[in-house]
Structures are given as structure tokens and as C-alpha cells.
């Protein structure tokens, strides 16, 4: 299943791309670029136009009270899931979970992830197994890590893997390794024809999952 990472600034462009690719994707993820460019109201607008669940990728990493204050506004704005960092500790993560569904980062997809976050991934997986978020974020650029995280993670917790396409990760390899959702941004919204790019990816994913 494909999650569109809609990292553009402009409201019109975001709405157009979302509508164009709607039938090929399962969820839309908005991050700071779109929220800063178009305002928080874009979450509800996208949700109403597409009917899809919305993920707010704010990677919240603050003290419990601040996490709670931010999350309250973001859930009120229509987000179905908020992405949060686990490294700030259980209390900060729980503060958000009390308000709605979360997806917790256990490892990131960029090269710098090896510096700090990968070495503590086991601890983050342990927190995830204890608090049972809807899902976790694992690096689509490192299928061997996705496989490891799948093995260590409680069944039922979904794995989302960004890093597919522009960052070099392969959709098929991430799915084979145990990802439930692949998160794809530039490969779709940066394509000359986003609808075609989404359709191609959809077919690739479907061929794999039915084969
Ligand atoms: O354009 P691209 O497909 O690389 O976009 C990936 C999206 O996933 C971006 O919104 C990025 O912030 C996000 N992300 C990531 N790695 C993580 C968590 C989120 O690339 N570990």
C-alpha cells in the first residue's frame, strides 16, 4: 500500500496532485513543507477532497505537555495519525497517544540515521512493543533493517517505510522485508506526470503482493 508524501508548498498544487493520484494511494502524509506553505487547514481540505486518511508527519519530539498541546491542534485539524519521535521517551509518546493514533519513528532512512538513531533502534522497538502504536517508521533504504524490525516488532504494529524512489529504496525490497506501507514523495509528486508515476508504482506493488 502506498502513502503519498505530499511535500510541496502550494495548496493548489497539493490538491491537484492528491486528486490526480487518489485512486492509487491509501493515505496522504503531510509534512512541515506543506503545512508551512499552505496552513494547517490543508489537512482537512485534502481529507475532504480525497476521502483518504491523513498522516501529519511532524516528528514531534518535545516534553509531554508540549507534545500534547501540539497534537491536540493537529488532531482537531483532521489528522488521523501523527508521526512522533520515540527517542524523547515513553512519557512524551504516551502524551500524544492519549489523544489519537500515532506512528513512531524507530529508525530513519537518510545516511545520518546511522549516527544516532540506528544504534538505539532496539530500545525504540522495545518502547513500541510496550505502548503498541498504530505503526512505526523504518528505513525503506535499508531492507535488512526493515526485516530486523519486523522480526522484533509485535505482530499487528504496521511498518511504514519512507525512502522509496528518490532516496534510492526499492518498493519491492521494502515490502519483501516486511513493510506494510511504502511512503513515496518525490518519485510521485516530482514526476512530470504524477498520476502515471503513481499508477506505475501501484502496479509494481500489486504485482508483487499478488505474485
Ligand atoms: O521524497 P521522498 O520520497 O524521499 O519523501 C520521503 C518522505 O518521508 C519525506 O516527507 C520525509 O520527511 C519522510 N521521512 C523519511 N524518513 C523517515 C521519516 C520520514 O524520509 N525516517
TrEMBL record:
<dbReference type="GO" id="GO:0005829">
    <property type="term" value="C:cytosol"/>
</dbReference>
<comment type="function">
    <text>Catalyzes the decarboxylation of orotidine 5'-monophosphate (OMP) to uridine 5'-monophosphate (UMP).</text>
</comment>
<dbReference type="GO" id="GO:0044205">
    <property type="term" value="P:'de novo' UMP biosynthetic process"/>
</dbReference>
<dbReference type="InterPro" id="IPR047595">
    <property type="entry name" value="OMPdecase_arc"/>
</dbReference>
<feature type="active site" description="For OMPdecase activity">
    <location>
        <position position="62"/>
    </location>
</feature>
<comment type="pathway">
    <text>Pyrimidine metabolism; UMP biosynthesis via de novo pathway; UMP from orotate: step 2/2.</text>
</comment>
<dbReference type="InterPro" id="IPR013785">
    <property type="entry name" value="Aldolase_TIM"/>
</dbReference>
<feature type="binding site">
    <location>
        <begin position="162"/>
        <end position="172"/>
    </location>
    <ligand>
        <name>substrate</name>
    </ligand>
</feature>
<feature type="active site" description="For OMPdecase activity">
    <location>
        <position position="57"/>
    </location>
</feature>
<feature type="binding site">
    <location>
        <position position="186"/>
    </location>
    <ligand>
        <name>substrate</name>
    </ligand>
</feature>
<dbReference type="InterPro" id="IPR011060">
    <property type="entry name" value="RibuloseP-bd_barrel"/>
</dbReference>
<dbReference type="InterPro" id="IPR014732">
    <property type="entry name" value="OMPdecase"/>
</dbReference>
<dbReference type="GO" id="GO:0004590">
    <property type="term" value="F:orotidine-5'-phosphate decarboxylase activity"/>
</dbReference>
<feature type="active site" description="Proton donor">
    <location>
        <position position="59"/>
    </location>
</feature>
<feature type="binding site">
    <location>
        <position position="185"/>
    </location>
    <ligand>
        <name>substrate</name>
    </ligand>
</feature>
<feature type="domain" description="Orotidine 5'-phosphate decarboxylase">
    <location>
        <begin position="1"/>
        <end position="201"/>
    </location>
</feature>
<dbReference type="InterPro" id="IPR018089">
    <property type="entry name" value="OMPdecase_AS"/>
</dbReference>
<comment type="similarity">
    <text>Belongs to the OMP decarboxylase family. Type 1 subfamily.</text>
</comment>
<keyword id="KW-0210">Decarboxylase</keyword>
<feature type="binding site">
    <location>
        <begin position="57"/>
        <end position="66"/>
    </location>
    <ligand>
        <name>substrate</name>
    </ligand>
</feature>
<feature type="binding site">
    <location>
        <position position="109"/>
    </location>
    <ligand>
        <name>substrate</name>
    </ligand>
</feature>
<feature type="active site" description="For OMPdecase activity">
    <location>
        <position position="59"/>
    </location>
</feature>
<keyword id="KW-0665">Pyrimidine biosynthesis</keyword>
<comment type="subunit">
    <text>Homodimer.</text>
</comment>
<feature type="binding site">
    <location>
        <position position="7"/>
    </location>
    <ligand>
        <name>substrate</name>
    </ligand>
</feature>
<dbReference type="Pfam" id="PF00215">
    <property type="entry name" value="OMPdecase"/>
</dbReference>
<feature type="binding site">
    <location>
        <position position="29"/>
    </location>
    <ligand>
        <name>substrate</name>
    </ligand>
</feature>
<protein>
    <recommendedName>
        <fullName>Orotidine 5'-phosphate decarboxylase</fullName>
        <ecNumber>4.1.1.23</ecNumber>
    </recommendedName>
</protein>
<keyword id="KW-0456">Lyase</keyword>
<dbReference type="InterPro" id="IPR001754">
    <property type="entry name" value="OMPdeCOase_dom"/>
</dbReference>
<dbReference type="GO" id="GO:0006207">
    <property type="term" value="P:'de novo' pyrimidine nucleobase biosynthetic process"/>
</dbReference>
Amino acid at each position: 500500500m502506498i502513502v503519498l508524501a505530499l511535500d510541496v508548498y502550494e495548496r493548489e498544487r497539493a490538491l491537484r496532485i492528491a486528486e490526480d493520484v487518489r485512486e492509487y494511494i491509501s493515505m496522504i502524509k503531510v509534512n512541515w513543507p506543506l503545512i508551512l506553505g499552505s496552513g494547517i487547514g490543508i489537512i482537512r481540505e485534502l481529507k475532504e477532497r480525497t476521502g483518504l486518511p491523513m498522516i501529519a508527519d511532524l516528528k514531534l519530539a518535545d516534553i509531554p505537555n508540549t507534545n500534547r498541546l501540539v497534537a491536540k491542534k493537529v488532531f482537531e485539524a483532521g489528522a488521523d495519525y501523527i508521526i512522533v519521535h520515540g527517542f524523547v521517551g515513553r512519557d512524551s509518546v504516551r502524551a500524544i497517544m492519549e489523544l489519537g493514533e500515532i506512528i513512531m519513528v524507530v529508525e530513519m532512512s537518510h545516511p545520518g540515521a546511522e549516527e544516532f538513531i540506528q544504534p538505539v533502534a532496539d530500545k525504540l522497538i522495545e518502547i513500541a512493543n510496550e505502548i503498541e502504536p498504530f505503526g512505526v517508521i523504518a528505513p525503506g533504504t535499508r531492507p535488512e533493517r526493515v526485516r530486523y524490525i519486523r522480526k522484533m516488532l509485535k505482530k499487528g504494529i504496521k511498518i511504514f517505510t519512507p525512502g522509496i524512489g528518490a532516496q534510492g529504496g526499492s518498493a519491492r525490497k521494502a515490502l519483501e522485508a516486511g513493510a506494510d506501507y511504502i511512503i513515496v514523495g518525490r518519485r510521485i509528486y516530482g514526476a512530470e506526470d504524477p498520476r502515471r508515476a503513481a499508477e506505475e508504482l501501484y502496479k509494481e506493488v500489486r504485482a508483487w503482493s499478488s505474485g
